[in-house]
């Protein structure tokens, strides 16, 4: 009797579950329609070009298409590795990134400094102003750089002349390129970059600060022992994401600041891909260089994630 | 508790540090604004260093007289509107579906989308694709290749996970409300903030970008503003309307003199819409970043 009842209820619940699943599919039909256009977009404009990278191993001809062109194996990669500009490109790309990485702590320091201010109009004003450069377009930023650094009429050289110095032709001097690029980038980024850390700082338990105060900790000690450890996970995540872009530099901006005279230090992998690929139509060769670049990025991301996991228990996956 | 001397010193230095930061950001912005309405002779000689000297509107007059600036402005507004609408259509419904716990396959689809952030075809294959789709020299080359951004989908998904209560969905379900009806009648009315944030993020991206236009557009009639700006600011080319017309030595000197003021004026003109609305919209932008930080 008892067993019969259980069996019956079991059968009923199975029937129910089946009906519910069928119902769910029918019910969620709309949800699939919601994601379909987006999935199609990523398929066409991201996955298809990823597949298109096979031209890196082929001799791509427009008339023969991606699949019809003849295989060449690693020929394009070898040509790139053996070319005389290979080490220049690597040195410039990595040099700019290491320079940027060295400035990685600036938004953290800015956030810590903001956090010491009491809330009020001055703090809001500071934030509004320092976020603003983030919204200026690359073209306008480069226009500002070019005008400010003009050897005769630029404000920077006027200041140098005011102190009795010789004017410097910053943009045609290869030695200055990396500094100009990285410092102007930081000017645009540090305020906006601080927002994330400010949010993390807002989440710090005030009791920790109270306890530290009772123990006689100074403000600086509280920053070091309470604030920084609390936002460490955010810092680590941002650092990993940064590493994932290790070989990617804002090449839209580099391209605008580049000229014949500073090419020695301003030519990076991506600007080279643009020139050889789109201006000289060497599609396969440039695709090979692009693939090489993406693979290094992926490798750096995975490595940074693994290191972070080992040393700080925070990671992307 | 009384602050120690060390702490007071620290607060003092902190204020000094932040003030220097403020000046470093504000000074270039004020300089550009002042230079755009100052006599170029004063600017080039270094007599103008903060406030406008010998005010003149010549720069703006020349910029506004230039037909191409207006063409660029019109095109940029059009591309920004169209691009942003497509972005929202592809971002908001998708993000909502991915936020639903009862949506089978949500994890697989999320992974499918996020993966493209870490590996994709890059410049050359994308260019060849756009070319083979016959989108070169059309609006679509600026709109479709950037129809959605992974980060923005993730941010919107997090928003829906946090704000749409499960009970609301269940209640609507019991009432026999379909998902589409529920999205339109229940979800959209409470998603104002995220739609505003996304429209701003995407809108700024479209307004400011030049690179895709540079590689995909050849016809000057459909150039966005940033491409004309690039010619004036970076390549130092000026159109006939901005030049003085006569080409003797004196005129060329006058033209060189005028070149800088035109540059400063055009910077302000291009950034004006954003500068005007930015202080009011700032909290929306910040909100977007904050939602993004909750679940990266």
From TrEMBL, chain A:
Biological processes, Gene Ontology terms: transmembrane transport
Pfam family, one: BPD_transp_1
Topology in the lipid bilayer: Multi-pass membrane protein
Keyword Transcription: no
TM helices/strands, residue ranges: 29-48, 98-117, 187-204, 225-243, 283-304
Compartment list: Cell membrane
PROSITE patterns reported for this sequence: ABC_TM1
Keywords linked to the UniProt accession: Cell membrane, Membrane, Transmembrane, Transmembrane helix, Transport
GO CC annotations, alphabetized: plasma membrane
ABC transmembrane type-1 domain ranges (all copies): 89-304
Xref: InterPro entries: MetI-like (IPR000515), MetI-like_sf (IPR035906), UgpAE/MalFG_permease (IPR050809)
Stated family: Belongs to the binding-protein-dependent transport system permease family.
Protein name per the record: Sugar ABC transporter permease
Organism of origin: Cohnella fermenti
Automatic annotation (TrEMBL), chain B:
This protein's UniProt keywords: Cell membrane, Membrane, Transmembrane, Transmembrane helix, Transport
Pfam families according to UniProt: BPD_transp_1
Membrane topology: Multi-pass membrane protein
Cellular component aspect of the GO annotation: plasma membrane
Domain ABC transmembrane type-1 stretches: 73-270
Primary location: membrane
Transmembrane segments: 9-30, 77-99, 111-133, 186-205, 261-281
Record InterPro entries: MetI-like, MetI-like_sf
Compartments it resides in: Cell membrane
Entry's Gene Ontology BP terms: transmembrane transport
Classification via CDD domains: TM_PBP2 (cd06261)
Family: Belongs to the binding-protein-dependent transport system permease family.
Name of the protein in its database record: Carbohydrate ABC transporter permease
Lineage summary: Bacteria, Bacillati, Bacillota, Bacilli, Bacillales
């Amino acid at each position: 009797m008892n067993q019969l009842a259980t069996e019956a209820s079991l059968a009923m619940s199975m029937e129910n579950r089946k009906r519910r699943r069928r119902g769910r599919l029918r019910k969620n039909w709309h949800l699939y329609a919601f994601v379909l256009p987006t999935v199609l977009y990523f398929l066409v404009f991201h996955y298809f070009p990823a597949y298109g990278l096979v031209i890196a191993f082929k001799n791509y001809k427009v008339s023969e298409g991606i699949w019809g062109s003849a295989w060449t194996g690693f020929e394009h990669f070898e040509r790139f590795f053996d070319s005389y500009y290979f080490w220049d490109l690597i040195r410039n790309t990595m040099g700019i990134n290491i320079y940027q990485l060295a400035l990685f702590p600036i938004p953290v320091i800015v956030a810590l400094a903001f956090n010491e201010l009491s809330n009020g109009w001055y703090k809001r004003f500071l934030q509004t102003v320092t976020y603003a450069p983030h919204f200026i377009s690359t073209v306008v930023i480069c226009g500002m750089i070019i005008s400010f650094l003009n050897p005769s009429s630029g404000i920077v050289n006027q200041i140098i002349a005011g102190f009795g110095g010789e004017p410097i032709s910053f943009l045609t001097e290869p030695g200055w390129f990396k500094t100009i690029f990285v410092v102007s980038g930081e000017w645009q980024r540090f305020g906006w970059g601080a927002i994330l850390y400010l949010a993390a700082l807002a989440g710090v338990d005030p009791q920790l600060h109270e306890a530290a105060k009772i123990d006689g900790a100074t403000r600086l000690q509280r920053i070091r022992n309470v604030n920084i450890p609390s936002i460490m996970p955010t810092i680590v995540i941002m650092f990993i994401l940064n590493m994932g872009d290790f070989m990617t530099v804002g090449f839209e901006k580099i391209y605008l600041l580049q000229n014949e005279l500073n090419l020695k230090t301003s030519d990076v992998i991506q600007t080279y891909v643009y020139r050889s690929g789109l201006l000289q139509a060497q599609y396969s060769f440039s695709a090979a260089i692009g693939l090489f670049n993406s693979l290094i990025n992926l490798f750096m991301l995975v490595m940074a994630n693994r290191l972070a996991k080992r040393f700080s228990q925070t990671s992307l996956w | 508790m009384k602050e120690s001397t060390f702490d007071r010193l620290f607060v003092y230095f902190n204020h000094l540090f932040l003030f220097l930061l403020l000046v470093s950001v504000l000074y270039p912005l004020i300089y550009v604004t002042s230079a755009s309405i100052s006599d170029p002779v004063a600017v080039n000689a270094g007599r103008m260093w903060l406030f406008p000297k010998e005010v003149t509107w010549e720069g703006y007059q020349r910029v506004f007289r230039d037909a191409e600036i207006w063409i660029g402005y019109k095109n940029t507004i059009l591309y920004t509107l169209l691009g942003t609408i497509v972005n929202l259509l592809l971002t908001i419904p998708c993000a909502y579906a991915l936020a639903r716990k009862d949506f089978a396959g949500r994890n697989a689809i999320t992974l499918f989308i996020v993966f493209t952030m870490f590996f994709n075809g890059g410049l050359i294959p994308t260019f060849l694709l756009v070319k083979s789709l016959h989108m070169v020299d059309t609006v679509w080359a600026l709109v479709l290749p950037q129809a959605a951004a992974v980060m923005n989908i993730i941010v919107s998904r997090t928003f829906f996970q946090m704000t749409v209560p499960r009970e609301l969905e269940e209640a609507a379900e019991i009432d026999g409300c379909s998902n589409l009806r529920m999205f339109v009648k229940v979800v959209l009315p409470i998603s104002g903030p995220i739609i505003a944030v996304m429209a701003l993020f995407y809108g700024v991206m479209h307004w400011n970008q030049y690179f895709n236009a540079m590689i995909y557009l050849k016809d000057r009639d459909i150039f966005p503003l940033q491409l004309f700006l690039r010619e004036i600011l970076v390549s130092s080319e000026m159109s006939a309307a901005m030049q003085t017309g006569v080409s003797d030595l004196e005129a060329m000197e006058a033209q060189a003199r005028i070149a800088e003021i035109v540059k400063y004026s055009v910077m302000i003109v291009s950034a004006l819409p954003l500068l005007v609305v930015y202080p009011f919209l700032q909290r929306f932008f910040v909100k977007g970043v904050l939602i993004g930080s909750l679940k990266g």
